Amino acid sequence: MAEQKRRVVPPVYLLLTVLAMGAMHHWLPLYQWTSRPWSWAGLLPVLLGLGVTVTAALSFMRAGTPIVPFEKSTALVTSGLFRFTRNPMYLGMVLLLGGSAILFGSVGALLPIPLFVWVIVSDFIHCEERFMEELFGAEYLAYKQKVRRWL
């Protein structure tokens, strides 16, 4: 079963979520749970998230397989960060969002994050897993048994 090419890719959802977080922080902060200079601690998970995402993307590039979801994979990447999580790029994005929420410092900025995770899991991860099972069969199923989806 071939998946129809998506027009909106995960980085677009990431950007929309950061914008929603900023809007919620500005117009519906609910409660300011941290402020400067403590909120600068959010830079650590932002940088870690960027590092995880870029490192995982480079693993795909080295393996010669596409990074864009639902393009036909040419290799099953199981090394590097993929030894610990099946979805390091998405995990990196969630770390980036968590760090952004700390930088904003308000409860309102946290609210869009679960929606981002839900969209990624329902619109991408579940479909990608079926796609990988079709492409790589038993090899992917064995990998899926050994490595968790997130951590």
Task: Describe the protein.
The chain is mostly helical and 151 residues long. It has one domain (10-146). It has 5 helices and no strands. It has helices spanning 10-27, 43-63, 88-104, 107-110, 112-146. Helix 1 (10-27) runs antiparallel to helix 5 (112-146) and helix 2 (43-63) runs antiparallel to helix 3 (88-104). The two termini are 28 Å apart.
Helices and strands in order:
Blueprint: H1 10-27, H2 43-63, H3 88-104, H4 107-110, H5 112-146
Helix pairs in contact: 1-3, 1-5, 2-3, 3-5
Radius of gyration: 17 Å
Helical residue percent band: 55-70%
Unreliable stretches: none
The helix/strand series, from N terminus to C terminus, equals HHHHH
The counted number of beta strands is 0
The description of the largest β-sheet is: none
Give the structural class: mainly alpha
Number of helices: 5
CA distance, first residue to last residue: 28 Å
Q: What is the 3D shape?
A: elongated
For the record, the count of structural domains works out to: 1
On the 0 to 100 scale, the average pLDDT is 94
Give the strand content: under 5%
Features:
single chain, 5 helices, mainly alpha, 151 residues, 63% helix
In short:
The protein is built from five helices and no strands. The chain is mostly helical. The model has no long low-confidence stretch (mean pLDDT 94).
